[in-house]
Amino acid sequence: MKTTTTGRGRLARAWPCAAALLACASPSASGGPAGATASASASPCPLDVPDTRAVAHETPSGYALTFATDPANVDAVRERVRLLASFYNMHHDPTEGPAASGLGARAEIAPGAIEPLPPSRARARDVEEGALLEVTPLRGVDVQRLRREVQLRWGGEQPTSCPSAGW
Fold first, then answer.
1. Which uninterrupted H or E stretch holds 65?
2. Who's near 30: CB < 8 A, 6+ residues apart?
3. Which of 54, 64, 85, 141 has its CA 20 to 30 A from that of 92?
4. CB atoms within 10 A of CB 152
5. Within 10 A of 55 (CB to CB), how many other CB atoms are there?
6. For residues 70 and 77, what is the distance between their CA atoms, to the nearest angstrom?
7. Are 31 and 65 contacting, i.e. CB atoms less than 8 angstroms apart?
8. How far apart are CA 116 and CA 45, in angstroms?
């Protein structure tokens, strides 16, 4: 179903996504002791959950980030990874993002700016100690580009914070 919105409607729909993505780069909002969990509304970044670590790696079809934590925090990490996948899909999957809602194409990229991610989809999956975020391009020819850009945004094989803008 295709819908049309006014400029104000577009802004209202985009604001929660932008605020959540920017919150990923902020310090932990939980403020509690180790083992305490915070609601994803405080910060959608899984790395803001106490005692959580991430490992990034290539997959045959794209890139993945595994978030592992202590048993007491597993549910909070899983919730945030699902939220992160949802935000990602709103911005990079043309069947869910701006193209699907009639917002049109992206503006041209300024020289030296980070290249936009190719049309792609994120999927959250539960793993024993947390959750896995898999990112796969919609076109096979974009696998290498996606890997490069995701790794650039997340800061390597052992990320310590979530990316802010551009994720």
1. strand 62-68
2. 36, 37, 38, 42, 43, 48, 49, 50
3. 54
4. 14
5. 13
6. 10
7. no
8. 20
